[in-house]
User: What shape does this take?
Amino acid sequence: MTNQRSNHKIPRRTFLKVCAAAAAAGLTACGKTQAAAALPELTVGSDSYPPFVYLSNDSTPTGIDVDIATEAFARMGYAVQIEIIDWEQKTKLVESGAIDCIWSSFSMDGREEEYRWSGPYMRSHQVVAVNVDSDIHSLKDLKDKVIAVQSTTKPEEMIRSHHEALPELRRVISVQKRDLMFLLLSKGYVDAIAAHDTGIRQFMSESGLEFRILEEPLLTVGLGVAFDKTDPRGLSDQLNTVLREMYHDGTTERIIGEYVQDTDRYLGGLYEN
Assistant: This one.
């Protein structure tokens, strides 16, 4: 499958050349070396979603998923290009070959038949957050309330399908960019938002805004890496093997621990054997 460019991608694209595999072979670990450039390259389509994927101060992609992808594909002998995509176009992009896989805090649950998956490599907890002084303290308190979600995400899917854990809502607002959810909540335009708990905590630490996460989660899901269903290269099977190795040798725990506390909450018992 060739990596074509797609008109669906946002104008500003960011790249990360990974050459740990070259370093393992005794070469200089530098993305500008000829050796690294000679490595076969995979394009990973991601959304900007801290702490999984975001841009550092020097506009370099970083985060949990970037670091795990970097290490995993390097072990497989590939350089990696992280490309920020229009998240709503992710399926079209991976089906067309414009990207090789989707890797960005992507929930596997309920999507098992839509892609060829690797993982799960960690768990994520989908939760509801409200303003600190809100009178919402449980999921049942959401009755007749307005909630915001990011479009094409697991929370949107759950809420719009009238998940049994939720009461009847007055309105669901879907936004393309996750930061807009927080803005709507902080200004009081919505009563609550639903998202990954790690993403909410990261936003609070960066913005200085404070929200309250309900103790009762919406859902605990497994995060995975999605390839096109017809991809013939066997990359998903290879990646599954490497992700298991990284879990057992402590690499995944070390990476996640650089971004969040209580790594056992996200990894405990993930691979039982």
